[in-house]
Amino acid sequence: MNEAVRSVAITSEQLAVLKGSEWFAALEPAFQEAVLRSSRVMALPSGETVFHRGDASDGIYCVISGAVCFGAIAPSGRGSIVALAEAPQWFGEVALFDGGARTHDAWADIASTLLHLPLRHLTRILADDPARWQQLGRLLVRKLRIALSLLEDMALEPPRVRLARCLIHLLEGYGQRRAEPSCSVRVSQERLGMMLSLTRQTVNELLRQMEREEIIQCRRGGVHILDPGRLRDAAQVSS
Fold it and tell me: What global pTM score does this model have?
């Protein structure tokens, strides 16, 4: 990652976005202050790498604006996208817990702004109060629960249900947003297909079906949710 993309301070507007993170908002004030004091803001152009698969951990990140894609390249050269993070989602904590390497490539899907808490500072913050490990663990466990649910969906649920649940996860920032979610998801049909292991044609057919039912509206580069309640019905999840 190019060091030139770093800036030195967080603005009041960016801080407001950060406080929209359910995980960050639940931290004790001293932990929040330590994170803010030790972090830096990064402005990344579209396509800029955050980290590569196999890299050593360099800390954790929060998306302030834009979006970050996570994926991998197979030996055949075929690429995949497994997840998409938008504001105010945190990521990068997995390698912190096991000391292992990064599990996926991460890059800015569009011009994006991230908050980066470097590993050396995070390690010190956690050493100051070991109970903070539990708070960081909650972030990891929330993602683990969702990942296990997605694996179960892959094995048991039909494509329509999986697609509806994916749209809900994206709307809600995978459970990390405090505020009421917006009604639009900025994601292409191709990327939805990669995330769900479905063909683009299948995704298109399912979206058009939901559009005819006036649940969603397909837009260029994304999906607008017309009826969140009926989308939840399609996903077979409770409100």
Answer: 0.81
